[in-house]
Amino acid sequence: MSKQLIFVDDSGDPGFKKVSSTNFVMAAALFIDPEVAFLLSERISEYRRSLGWRNDYEFKFAKIRKDIIVELLKIVSEYDFQIYATYVDKSSFRETAQIIDKEKLYNWTIKELLLMIPIKEAKIEIDGRSSKENMKSTATYLRKEINKNKDKKLQIKFEDSDKDNLIQLADLIAGSINRSLSADKTDSKVYIDIIKSKIAGIRRIDQR
Predict the structure, then answer these.
(1) For the chain, what are the domain ranges?
(2) Where does 4-204 sit in CATH, by number?
(3) How far apart are CA 182 and CA 177, in angstroms?
(4) Local structure of residue 47 (DSSP, 8 states)
(5) Residue 13 CB coordination number (10 Å)
(6) How far does Cα 47 stand from its chain's mean position?
(7) Could you give the maximum distance between any two Cα atoms of the chain, in Å?
(8) Considering the entire predicted model, what is its pTM?
(9) Residue 27 gets which letter from DSSP?
């Protein structure tokens, strides 16, 4: 049996400053068939070229035009993969004055995400958003927490998102879900409606 392929990115930020985001979303694209992942990555590259962009130009929800996001989500929705996501509404933490370290919040959110996914043997690629020390700490934490059940096998790798189309896909998914949590935005449901058939689960997580 082939390894499951899981690509992970987030939207918002795990901080608690006044300028920090209200929600922090962690999302994953799960591929059962590696061939589908390869073909979709190639299709994303093809779409990038059709726009006249450089090969290293990154698809990021927060930085590209809405019509491009819509078109790309329509393209990816034709492929066989599943979406899982967890999110934190940080206002609930502020209300109870239980502000936690942003690194701990990041690790906790991604752990809860991976626990949602029916992992057997998986290669997990995560956006390399942090220092080498933090990435090593996160990988160690995840292996310990996820692999308490010894029949789960994880291969965790951090990758720069500008080098990986499928981490960029995870960014678009996370951004779409985060936008859907903002009812005051006129496009709050536009993006998530396109990918809704791919969603296997979205869960809000709260402090215990």
Answers:
(1) 4-204
(2) 3.30.420.10
(3) 9
(4) H
(5) 17
(6) 21
(7) 49
(8) 0.93
(9) E
